[in-house]
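The records we work with from here on pair a chain with its fold. These numbers are not coordinates but entries in a learned vocabulary of local backbone shapes. To see the layout at work, look at the sequence and tokens printed below.

. . .
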Amino acid sequence: MTSTEPSGAALGYRPGATLGIRVELSRQLKRRRTTAAFAFLVALPLLLILAFTVGSEEFEEGNQVNLVDVATASSMNFVLFVMFATTGFFLVVVYALFFGDTIASEASWGSLRYLLAAPVPRARLLRQKFAVALILSVAALLTLTVVSLVAGTVAYGWNPVRTPVGITLDQGEALLRIAAIVAYLAFTLLTVGSLAFMLSVVTDAPLAAVGGAVFMMIVASILDAVEALGEIRSYLPTENQYAWVGTLSTPMQTEDMLTGCLQTLAYSAVFLAVTWWHFGRKDVVS
């Protein structure tokens, strides 16, 4: 009686049943970095409300209004301000953390070789790790949004939204636009997520993967501010990170958001292709 399948695999072995999403998600949720990240996401809106309370500055009315000026006008104005304040750096760090730490940490602990010896197929390992990192990253973004909305409602009330260009939106319309903003950010931040994921398989140091992705995005932001680069700036991954501001005008301006989504698809495809190619040839035993 044979103890193996015709393919040579052990009886009952199913590659598609290894490293389930729930198992991996449970492992990641138990980690201190996950707890610390979500704790800070909950605390950040409260700290901003405290800052506005302590620094009770009167803003001058003018022809132009920015998000800071109207941050305390309503709960959803506060959400918009939080989104604007965190887009350029904080959310980049969150995505880089969850995507960049996932493979490199296993390698640094020495557990990556045991996962593959389980055996978990390499392609499936990457797919499951990427899916869980995406779940955690989107959950982090939603946590920040919901906590900001709840805390803002308590602090500033459930009032119509005043946009940066002086347009007033009712609560229902504002909620739809905030949902569009969150969806745009969740998707376009996959550029930094895919970059961090690629670095996570290239290096065995989690800090190098996370820090490398954040550093590259900072460099891209700096170059994006150099007007002398001209059209070159249009190809930088940070060019359209604030394109969601166009949703606050009437009618909504979504052309730059579409461009940002296409850029994300292009960058992510390249980064993930390199990830799968490199990991398929990586020596994880020595």
Notes: The first strand starts at residue 161 and ends at 162. Residues 4-13, 59-65 have pLDDT under 50 and may be disordered. The chain has ten helices and two strands. Strands lie at 161-162, 168-169.
